[in-house]
Structure formats: structure tokens, C-alpha cells
Amino acid sequence: MNVTIIGTGYVGLVTGACLAELGNNVFCLDVDQAKIHLLNAGGMPIHEPGLEEIIARNVEEGRLVFSSDPAAATAFADVQFIAVGTPPDEDGAADLQYVLAAARSIGRHMQGFKAVVDKSTVPVGTAEKVAAAIREELAARGADIEFAVASNPEFLKEGAAVEDFMRPDRIVLGVDETPAGERALALLRELYRPFNRNHERTRVMDVRSAEFTKYAANAMLATRISFMNELANLADRVGADIELVRQGIGSDPRIGYSFLYAGTGYGGSCFPKDVDALCRTASENGHGLQILDAVQRVNQAQKKVLLEKVWAQFGRRLAGRSFAVWGLAFKPGTDDMREAPSRSIIEALLRAGATVRAHDPVAQEQAARALAGDLADHPELLRNLTFVPKPLDAAQGADALIVLTEWKSYKSPNLRALREALRSPLVLDGRNIYDLHAMAAAGLTYLGIGRNNLALLKEQMQVAPITVANEVTREEPIEVLVE
Ligand code: UDX
């Protein structure tokens, strides 16, 4: 089949590449010409395991093209996926301007039937807005052409996007029960046929339910995380280990093991934005969602939990202190820094006068850019932030190691070398990746999230006195801006 994908972000690029890999002819459109040039030159705008190879192969074999020509994109295929960004607007609602601009572009150029498929995560009711935008464009040029707007939300995770796309748990298709809707459904069923060989994964429903399903899934997962984070903080206070508790409850199949990891709060481009947007929709409809409001509040507070452990050890003024940070991306397998906990934590450390040496296997460049933006009001503090090529380099002479992303390469460090590198033997683990006993045996003081920290919290460890002079010193720490 021929397919057009509008938007070459995470969702669009992965969808386009994977559909081409299945043998379809795919036309990827983006208004960002620099991105199109990069893709046409064999470059990659994002880090996603396996994607580069698939793109290279399918471009080479002529099934995948990148272009910024909207007329050609519309003419190319009956199926037009809209996979552009829906960033939050000032008050947290999903900003639909790019989705509606894509719809208008289709409306302006279409000559025959189109199945317009919303793949971006969009609030309930967006398909109707997309249809209205297309109708307006058709009316403006006096055209009367049949089309349908369908909803086909994407559930892929960054870092495993290709795998998730190729082996979906379910394919949600929202269509209207109209002749045009049925026509769109037939096309989409044909497109997704290869995924249903073993068993039927397609769930067909009305458009509004499909739009809602995506938000419900992300809200449920975010709720599990905030729930576990809240319990972890209680575990710290009562002397229980949340990791053992996680295993104890996860073995119940009604609960399951996934998404029960306590940490530094959920980040990324989806959960924070989607939970906020759903809360927004709820209050606009006079039906505030109390549980989700709490999920958001708990997540905000969770970003501070590691910092509170730093403050408990070193006080709030950190001038002369130096911290090693392992992991910058919001999760492993990606270089995405959107809502990454590392940003607010490093920002707070720098504002309090500390120096930071950071390592990430892929996200250092993105992190440097993100933090330069976050610290735009005090750019001189960036001089106290260094990115190092090896994890152990970061730990050299540091007052503590702070682990913020659970990259595989951090999971089995040489603990003796780590102990020797650190100035004070303190490891603050925001991802609970280490074994308590192994850390203790190596002479390291280990503070995880909810890991039976009672004794350690009561009895502060002896930290080394400040001896290192900072490049930028401050009498008073700059106000710490973590909410
Ligand atoms: C998520 C959804 O999983 C995906 O279905 C949807 O399409 C987009 O949003 P993604 O944002 O790529 O995908 O990341 P995910 O792996 O779900 O993690 C989200 C955040 O939750 C990360 O910050 C992660 O560290 C955190 N998390 C996840 C936890 O803190 N604990 C867990 O147990 C799981």
C-alpha cells in the first residue's frame, strides 16, 4: 500500500520506517526542511535502537522517501497519518495547531478520497476538529470530496519503539459508522494485516473511545508509578525495602511486575504531558479527576526526594561540593531529555553552588543543550558542569555519586574502583539498581528510593569537609527552583 505520514518526530518516523519495512511505500512529510535534509543525507534526528538501519534499508530500496512537499504528500496515498507534535500550551492543554495545520494541508491538496488517521495523542473530540478543518478547506475551493477521520493512537515506548511497533499488544482503530468510516477501516485493516497473523490484535471502536484509550493507558501507568513512589517514601520512614515489596506484590497476576519501579518521578514526552492534558479535559468537563491530580502532585514532589537526601547529608549550601551524576536521559535507550529528572536535579545542585561531573552514554549533547536553556538566567553556573567520557571519571573526587538513569552499563560497576574514586563513599541511587549488601560490602553508603534507609537517615554519615575550590563561588546559594 501507499501511505503518507505527516510529521517525522518519534511517532511519525518510527511508523513510517516500520510500515516501509513491511513492504509499503511510505512518504514522510515534515515542514522542518533541515530535518528532511538530514534524513535524506542519511542522518538521524533521534536516537532509537534499530531505527537507523531500517530507514537506511528502506530508503535504499526505494520504499521510503522524505520530503517537505505537502501537495506531493497528499497525492501519494489514500491513507494520511497525522503524527505531528501536540506540545502542551501555556495552561497544559494539548496544543492542536500542528495537527490542524496538517489537516488543512490535506484539505487544500486532496483530489480524491482520503482516510485521515490521527496518530498523535490528541484529546477526545479532536477528530471532529480535524474533519471540520478539512471541510473548511474543501469548501474554500468549492470541492466536495469524500474523506473520513479515524483515530489510531500509538503506544510505543521510546528506546523500544521499533520493537513495540512491530510487536504491538493491540492496534486501536477508532472509526465512524459511516460509509466513509467503513472505507477508512478497510484500508487500515489491510495495512495492519501483517500484525494480526497469529491472533487478532485490532480493537475497533468509535473515534472518541479510541482517543480516550490512549490517555487512559498513560494515566493508568503514571498512577502506578506515583503510587509506588509514595509507598517508597513511606518505606524509607518505616524501615522497609520497596524493592522487596515490589517483588512481593508483583507476583500477584492482578498486579503484575511492570511499571512498579519507584524512582525520581516519571518524565519523558508523554506521561507528564498526557496526564496534565487529561486532567485539563476533566476539569473543562466539570469532572475533575482527583486521583490523577494527586498522581501529578506526587510526581512533582518525587523529583525532590533525591535532593532532600543530598541536603540531609550536605546542607543546602553546596559551594565547594562536587557531585558525580550517572545518567541524563529520562530513561535508558534514548537521548531524550524532555522532563528528565536529571535536569531539575543538576540545575538545583548548580544553583546551590556545587560542581557536577556528568556521564550519559548517548544524551550528553542533548543534556548540555537542555541545561543551557534551564540555566539561561545564570549561564556562568554552566562552567561548574562537565560532561565526562567514562562513568568512573565522573566519580573522581566527588562527594557523592547520584544515579539518575538505569542504563545497563551502570548496573555492575567495579565497586572497589568506585569506592576509591569517590571522596565520600556515598551513592544516591534514584533508580534502585544496586544490591544493598554488595554496596555495604564495598564500603559504600547507599541511599536508594525507599530502600530501608531508616537507620541511615536517622544517623547522618560523616561527610568529608569542603576542600575543593569552585570556579564559581557564591556566598549564598541561588534560590533552588525545584517546585
Ligand atoms: C510512555 C508509554 O509507556 C507509551 O505506551 C506511550 O506511547 C508513551 O509514553 P515512554 O514515555 O517512552 O512511553 O516511556 P516509559 O518507558 O513508559 O517511561 C515513562 C517514565 O516513567 C520514565 O520517566 C520512566 O523512568 C518512568 N518509570 C517507568 C518509572 O519511574 N517506573 C516504572 O516502573 C516505569
TrEMBL record:
SMART domains the UniProt entry points to: UDPG_MGDP_dh_C
Catalytic activity as recorded in UniProt: UDP-alpha-D-glucose + 2 NAD(+) + H2O = UDP-alpha-D-glucuronate + 2 NADH + 3 H(+)
Binding positions (substrate): 155-158, 214, 259-263, 267, 331
Pathway(s) it belongs to: Nucleotide-sugar biosynthesis; UDP-alpha-D-glucuronate biosynthesis; UDP-alpha-D-glucuronate from UDP-alpha-D-glucose: step 1/1
Swiss-Prot/TrEMBL GO biological process terms: polysaccharide biosynthetic process; UDP-glucuronate biosynthetic process
Broad class of enzyme this protein falls into: oxidoreductase
Keyword annotations from UniProtKB, A to Z: NAD, Oxidoreductase
Pfam families: UDPG_MGDP_dh (PF00984), UDPG_MGDP_dh_C (PF03720), UDPG_MGDP_dh_N (PF03721)
Residues annotated as binding NAD(+): 30, 35, 86, 121, 158, 273, 338
UniProt xrefs under NCBIfam families: NDP-sugDHase (TIGR03026)
Protein name stated in the entry: UDP-glucose 6-dehydrogenase
Organism: Ramlibacter agri
Species classification: Bacteria, Pseudomonadati, Pseudomonadota, Betaproteobacteria, Burkholderiales
